[in-house]
Design goal:
two-stranded antiparallel ribbon, Hypothetical Protein Ychn, Chain: A, alpha/beta, 6 helices, 2 domains, five-stranded parallel β-sheet
């Protein structure tokens, strides 16, 4: 804890796509900057965000709210078009260009900021076993733990988020 009366927050991170990686890292680093003691629990597809080599993409399929700014308007990707080969790669490229153009920090930068902010990161041991990840696949810093490790932390937190 940052002090005797410090607030605390935990976040369960379950998604590993480019667009879903931003909310947990932005919320965690912002909370840490505001003095909260933050723990992130990476499980299932969220665990991929702790891999040394990130190659994140987005999927337009099943995301009807996704609208990309183009030529002064917002392009909405119908689900039927999303099923075509190459559409996800095109949408990922567009998103990465938009992130760069707007000066938004990369996931790698946000992850580094989280580490530098002393955010506690827990890599789900069950997910590691399930997907056959090795600890050497992950960045340095996260501890291995399971649901009990997370719950022990969450029961002491003022704020618990599931993303």
């Amino acid at each position: 804890m940052n002090g005797e009366n410090a607030k605390s927050m935990s976040i369960i991170v379950t998604k590993g796509s480019l667009d879903w990686a931003y909310p947990p890292f932005i919320l965690a680093t912002t909370a840490a900057a505001m003095g909260l003691d933050v723990t992130m629990f990476f499980t299932f597809y969220g665990l991929t965000l702790l891999k040394k080599d990130l190659n994140l993409s987005i999927s337009t399929l099943g995301n009807p709210a996704m609208a990309m700014p183009m030529m002064g308007a917002h392009m909405i990707m119908p689900n039927l078009i999303s099923a075509l080969p190459g559409v996800d790669a095109m949408a990922t490229s567009m998103m990465k260009n938009l992130i760069k153009k707007k000066g938004v920090a990369s996931i790698e930068d946000l992850r580094t900021a989280a580490i530098e902010s002393d955010i506690h990161m827990i890599a789900c041991q069950m997910t590691m076993d399930l997907f056959e990840f090795k600890q050497s696949d992950l960045i340095d810093g996260p501890i291995l733990g399971g649901a009990a490790t997370y719950i022990e932390t969450a029961t002491k937190c003022d704020i618990n988020l599931f993303i």
